[in-house]
Design a protein that fits this description.
Its main location: cytoplasm. The protein has 126 residues and is α+β, with helices and mostly antiparallel strands. It has helices spanning 3-10, 13-16, 19-32, 66-77, 101-108, and strands spanning 36-43, 57-61, 86-89, 115-120. It has one domain (3-125): Ubiquitin-like (UB roll) (Roll). Helix content is 37%, strand content 18%.
């Protein structure tokens, strides 16, 4: 991957696109896929141990649980069972693993129509 593309991945999605563009994209996704939720997942800015994912946008079914989504992310990041992965919603909220993505989306979705999540290892707490 060229250095420019790698550096663009480190810029948060909200800073790469203006609000109007994000709203249009979120509305378009929701109208094309009414049974799915648009989710943006990015690595915590100070994370040093976990790799970047090859994509940050996900379409997730309403009934998916947070636990199922974390399992999906673990496979995308290719973590082994001994590595910790924490998922924060809207940058500073942790949710129950049994909560559905629909419940989390209705509570924490952004005004642009996306649900923003951040992943990190345990080092973010200390």
């Amino acid at each position: 991957m060229p250095p420019f593309e790698k550096s663009m991945e480190m810029i948060p999605f909200k800073q790469r696109k203006c609000l109007a563009s994000r709203k249009d994209e979120g509305f378009s996704i929701r109208s094309k896929f009414p049974n799915k939720l648009p989710v943006i997942v990015e690595r915590y800015i100070r994370e040093k141990h976990l790799p970047l994912m090859d994509k940050s946008k996900f379409l997730v079914p309403f009934e998916f649980t947070i636990g199922q989504f974390i399992s999906l992310l673990r496979s995308k990041i290719d973590l082994d069972s001994s590595q910790a992965l924490y998922l924060l919603v809207s940058e500073n909220h942790m949710t129950c693993l049994t909560a559905s993505m629909g419940e989390v989306y209705s509570q924490y979705s952004d005004q642009d129509g996306f649900l923003y999540m951040t992943y990190a290892s345990q080092d973010m707490f200390g």
